[in-house]
Each structure stands twice: as C-alpha cells, then as structure tokens.
Design brief:
By secondary structure, the chain is an alpha+beta fold. It has one domain. The protein is 33% helix and 40% strand. A five-stranded mixed sheet has the order 1-2-5-4-3, covered by helices on one side. The longest helix is centred in the middle third of the chain and has 13 residues. It is globular and about 30 Å long. The model has no long low-confidence stretch (mean pLDDT 96).
Length: 70
C-alpha cells in the first residue's frame, strides 16, 4: 500500500522501497533543486539518483506525484 507525504509542498506517493528517495528529495535537496525534478515529472517523468547512486523515477498523474525505484 502506498505511503503519502509532502515534499517541498508537493504530495508524493511512494512505497517503502522508495523511502530513501523521499529522504533525498526532502532533506538533501533545496527547494529550487527539487523543483526541477517535480516540474520535469509533470511534463513526462523525472529520473534521478540519490547520493548513494540508487535510481528513482518521479511521475505525475491525477494531481499527485509518485516515486518508485527505477
């Protein structure tokens, strides 16, 4: 079952496997840096890697973002 949280004002659904990606977006990136990924996800999707080189995919549908391991 997905977990929902707010990251820099954006609602994001994720699962336990993607929790480190949430921490990276929320705690390691400044708002302006994270906003780049959220804007890209709204257009199509945004792939990124955290500081431990783990890949993630941020996508957008129905006014909500979803984060998964890529």
């Amino acid at each position: 079952m997905p977990i929902e949280t707010t990251v820099h004002g954006f609602i994001v659904a994720y699962d336990e496997e993607s929790a480190e990606g949430i921490n990276f977006l929320r705690d390691e990136l400044k708002f302006e840096e994270a906003k780049i990924f959220f804007n890209q996800a709204k257009k199509k999707s945004a792939e990124f890697k955290d500081d431990k080189n783990r890949p993630y995919l941020l996508s957008y549908a129905k006014n909500k973002y979803s984060l998964t391991r890529a």
